[in-house]
Amino acid sequence: MPTEEVLANAKRKIFAEIKFEMDKRGYTTTSLAELLNINRPTVSSAIHGGTAPKDVEIRKKIYKIFGMDI
Which residues contact 20 (CB under 8 A, 6 or more apart)? Predict the structure, then answer.
């Protein structure tokens, strides 16, 4: 499988798992951003699988909030 396809699949998996937890707990991207005290586009980038160090840091915080083992 080409590297770009692997990356795209990983991003889809990240988004699906975080979105599931958000929906289960009644969070929106905006409410999660408010909880984390950051702007909505930054949270959106992180949950959509952004690869910048800031995206990874934010995802780790989200995983902790939701008790996710990823």
Answer: none
Alpha carbon dihedral 55, 56, 58, 62, in 10-degree steps, equals 130
Neighbours of 62 (CB within 10 A): 22
- The stretches of 1-70 forming alpha helices (DSSP H) are 3-25, 29-36, 40-47, 53-66
Identify the three-state secondary structure at position 27: coil
Using CB atoms within 10 Å of the CB of residue 67, give its burial: 0 to 12 exposed, 13 to 18 middle, 19+ buried: exposed
Q: How confident is the model at residue 1 (pLDDT cuts 50, 70, 90)?
A: confident
pLDDT at 12: 97
| Amino acid residing at 3 | T
Tell me the residue length of the chain: 70
